[in-house]
Fold these 2 entries.
Entry 1:
Amino acid sequence: NILVCTIITLLSLIRAILLIFILFGFVNVTVNWTTGGINIDPLSILLLGAGFRKVGLYGPVLISVAIPLGAIIFMIKRKKWLTSRIENQD
């Protein structure tokens, strides 16, 4: 009983950490819509992987997109988890 509770707690902790990792995008790419300029920030973190901002009334529109590294890793691992679960059922 204690073993099961420990395993469930560890799995919940791993899922919580993975969820936090999925919410953030890394390697930010920003496009200046007005000038067409592109800026790549390899050491940047963006919440939910996308952003939009306009500086002032007549300022440029900046659209930012980040690579959802956590989501990509989750999808790769998910496929492995599902195939291992199917193999264990047989």
Entry 2:
Amino acid sequence: MKERMFTLRGWELTGESSEKPTNVLGLLWNKEEDTLYVNVDSLLSMDLSNITKRVILSAAHPIGIVSSFTIVPKLLLQELWETGLTWDDEVAEDTRMRFNQWMAEVPLISEIKVPRWVSGANVPDDKWSLHIFSDASKAAYAAAVFLRVEHESEVTVQLLAARSRVAPTSKTKAGMTIPRLELLAASIATRLYKTVAEDFKLFDVKTVFWTDATTVLAWIRKNEPWNTFVMNRVKEIRLLYKGCQWQHVPGELNPADLPSRGSSMKKLIQSRWWEGPQWAIHNSCSGRQCRFKKQTHT
């Protein structure tokens, strides 16, 4: 740091006992537990006496770990665009009630804590693998990146990044079928992979893309004269994933399903979605086939 003329102003270490968490890139870091969680202070301090489009927009938090919850105000905002309301017009009573119900669960966001260090010490790269999932519904489409690490005594799966987007408005939905939305989800999955691989330097790690849309798999794998919409996105996907595997996952086992539909915070916490699908811990996939073990619940 001295060579680069950086002035050292402070140094914080994992394991330090401190009542005050440290701000780290929009998250809060609990140094004693070495965990990260979302800072909801700005949301809790919002003035809810007059609910407008501007207020709802300010509640749309970008942090991916809670994307299945924060997609809800984005969906409300999309509905409001079609009403013709200005940014500062008060919304209808029905929308106000739905937004207030959503805000009532905001304090629960801070209950989600994820480990800052997702790998562990002395784990060789060949024990790592990236698993990128995509899914879509009529309301939204989403992608999520998980890191699977095979330790000596256990296998861990941890969320690295997630992204969700609302589906096009009703004016354009006529030609936007579910397969096309699934293709949009696959395209943001490859973009998210590129971002994660660059940031974490994981281009040499085994990577598998997962979708429950067989139509999308056919579009990606086959060289056919698809229409312009499909072909443009297939070209982008093929360019970005550069030969990584694309495989099918049953819809009920696809973790990207939750952020593609939206959920309450209670449902999100119960799912422990950020820890990845349990089947990814027990299944080791190779080639183009993957057998899914039946999950049992106790």
